[in-house]
Amino acid sequence: MTGTMTITESRNLRIHTFTAPDDGWSVNSHIIELPTQLIVIDAQYMLPYAREVVSYAQTLKKPIKRLYVSHYHPDHLLGAAAFRAPIYALQEVTAKIEALGDRVAAEEHEKHPDRIPDHAERPTVIVRPGVEVIDDVRLSFTLLQHAETEHALMVAVPDHEILITQDLVYHDVHVFIAEKAFDTWLAGLRHYEDLPYSHILPGHGLPGGPELYGSMSHYLVTARDLFSKSCDGEDLKARLIAAFPDFTGSAMLDHQKRFLFSPAKQKV
After folding, report:
1. Mean pLDDT in consecutive groups of 10 residues from the start of the chain, 268 residues
2. pTM, to two decimals
3. What is the Cβ-side half-sphere exposure of residue 229, based on CA atoms within 13 angstroms?
4. pLDDT (0 to 100) of residue 263
5. CB distance 25 to 199 below 8 Å
6. For the domain that residue 244 is a member of, what is the CATH number?
7. How far apart are CA 163 and CA 199, in angstroms?
8. Which pLDDT does position 100 carry in this prediction?
9. Which of 106, 145, 173, 201 could form a disulfide with 249 if both were Cys (CB 3.0 to 4.6 A apart)?
């Protein structure tokens, strides 16, 4: 296995978190192991890493019954081609994938034609925010707005104090700030930090505890300041790497350049 697998255990529940290597943007897929089935949260960026998630799931000897896609960004969506389970997503996320998914896939396929599909898989089941009991385990589905992206899904297992935040939180990985929603993102972090979850499973980087909210807030405040001082994407990238030299995910800093700065300001 080229990625890293971390297991979060709480009584009779286990969640297996696969963190991709740096070239896979250190993105996470979380496998919720229920008594008779598996639920996967997010599909990976590259197909080889998505296949690693599927292969690992097979060792658990339970079928994958659902694949949830938290939002439409390529690193959470494009690996879905490796799965055979129904794809679940919020209505807002489904609409984004319908409108933009194939364009996003084509752009990323051009960069990595052997590792990324040329189209995006479509969700087949709409997720509605609220609580659902699956295999006698209570799962809570929440619509997160105006953080990394406009609409995203978070999944909690409240009876076990576990919150799968996905891209509300990164852990020691450079953050995609292209939508520049610093204030509302920081407000979201403060809100969830006050809730009684002791296990925080982020969208990128290894799982941790509530301390991840503080480190994520620090990154966003720093990034907001450095963005205001940067003349172009390369300048911002250099400043963020200098501020967080031990972080992975530098590809994220390249990916966001065209969203943060006009083409005329980019260095050729």
Report:
1. 96 96 97 98 98 98 98 98 98 98 97 96 98 98 98 98 98 98 98 97 98 98 98 97 97 95 57
2. 0.96
3. 10
4. 67
5. no
6. 3.60.15.10
7. 6
8. 97
9. 173
- Give dist(CA 172, CA 59) in Å, integer: 29
Phi/psi for 243 (5° steps) reads -75, -30
Q: 3-class SS at 89?
A: strand
Contact predicate 87/69, CB 8 Å: yes
Please, which residues bridge with residue 41 across strands?
30, 68
Phi, psi of 217 (to 5 degrees): -60, -40
Q: Is 205 left (phi over 0), alpha (psi -120 to 50) or beta?
A: left
**Count of residues in the chain:** 268
Number of domains the chain contains: 1
**Contact by Cβ (8 Å): 81, 121:** yes
At 178 the pLDDT is 97
How is residue 42 annotated by DSSP? -
Range of the structural domain that residue 197 is part of: 4-265
Q: What's the token pair of residue 187?
A: 């407000």
The backbone region for 172, taken as left when phi is positive above 0, alpha when psi lies in -120 to 50, beta otherwise, is: left
Q: How far apart are CA 26 and CA 169, in angstroms?
A: 13
Q: Residue 37, class by beta-carbon neighbours within 10 Å (0-12 exposed, 13-18 middle, 19+ buried)?
A: middle
Tell which residue, 250, 148, 225, has the closest CA to residue 189.
148
